[in-house]
Amino acid sequence: MCSAISAHNCTCGKHEFRTGSFTADGRFEGQCTRCPTGSSCSTPGFTSETLPVLSGYWRSSPHSAIVTPCVNPRSCLQDSTCAEGHTGPLCNVCLPNYEKVRQGANL
Q: What residues contact residue 90 under an 8 Å CB cut-off, 6+ apart?
């Protein structure tokens, strides 16, 4: 189920990240999942909470394993941070005093 490099702490290897949760009795149940396009897992040990998201990509929360290309790649900075003037899903919503001048671009 898990290609972890350690059975004791379920640390996943390169190009994978750990998903799962703790059971009522305190055991962790999870698995190692291949890192999605738009993320970078070049070293072992990433979890869904620490999954690094590349610039030009976005994910809705640290608990989501779905990484999506942004409408305007320049509006999405690394780790799902939006560029100045951008907010919301896919960083495709304008903040107050900003407006779209073409699809996905804010001024």
A: 58, 68, 70, 71, 75, 76
